[in-house]
Amino acid sequence: MDIDGQIPDVIPLPYLPLSSSSNTQLIPRIDESTNFGGGNLMDRFIKLVDELDNHVEKLRKDAITLQEKRDYLSMSMDLLKNNDLLSNLQEYEREEINCYMQRVHSRLATVELNVKTVRNSAQEECLHQVNVFIDSLISSPDAVISRQRCQMFLNACDGAPEAASGSTRDPCELTVDKKFESSLLGCTLDDQKTIKKRLHALITYLNKQTISD
Q1: How far apart are CA 182 and CA 186, in angstroms?
Q2: Residues 6 or more apart from 13 whose CB is under 8 A from it?
Q3: Stretch 128-151: mean pLDDT, rounded?
Q4: The CA-based dihedral angle spanning residues 202, 147, 126, 56, taken in that order and rounded to the nearest 10 degrees
Q5: Dihedral over Cα of 78, 190, 152, 198: its sign
Q6: pLDDT in tens, 104-128
């Protein structure tokens, strides 16, 4: 809880602009005047397909960026909903805030983004387990414990640093949550990268919250 009684900041979201280039530039065009450095007609088609492939890859990256932003917004609302300062409000005030948050959450739910990651059944189960671990941090009323567990989850993503002799560092910074690590390693590489970004955003929020308590 902030010492001045203010609601802690939610997760900061960077401005994430998309390309403003005209969509008409994506339309392939090939005729006798098309020239990609010479070559036969087959080479020209291959170069066009290569160009389209580059556009598809950029589209995937832009969609993933938007998907991450949507997930951060959802996580911010969940954290705010579980903020202990809400208990300081009158009941009618809490109801008003909860109704407002529900309206915002409903609007967010109208935005559907899905960049498909190919997973087998084991990878799907591991991802589900990881999400359960992370959701438990968000719903926990104890920000200090959540921060410590989040740090141990991040250690599983990065590998726990070596403990130096006589180190005064927080033991949580040198510890890996083995159950989380086991589930994490069963996820796809793309999912592992996304999980790491999500945990970094979460611990940034939790650090601000626990420091100001």
Answers
A1: 7
A2: 69, 72, 73, 76
A3: 91
A4: 20
A5: negative
A6: 999 999 998 888 888 999 999 999 9
Backbone φ, ψ for residue 128 (5° rounding):
-60, -45
What is the Cα–Cα distance from 77 to 34, expressed in whole angstroms? Answer: 52
Q: What is the structure's pLDDT at 163?
A: 43
- Place 10 in a pLDDT band, splitting at 50, 70 and 90: very low
pTM of the complete model beyond 0.85 = no
The one-letter amino acid at 163: A
Q: How high is the pLDDT of residue 78?
A: 85
Residue showing tokens 């141990």 = 152
Instruction: Give buried/exposed letters for 70-91 (b at 16+ CB in 10 A, else e).
Output: eebbebbbebbeebeeeeeeee
- Cα–Cα separations (whole angstroms), residue 76 to 65, 86, 96, 205: 17, 15, 18, 9
Q: Measure the CA–CA gap between 135 and 171, rounded to whole angstroms.
A: 23
The whole-angstrom separation of Cα 171 and Cα 154 is: 14
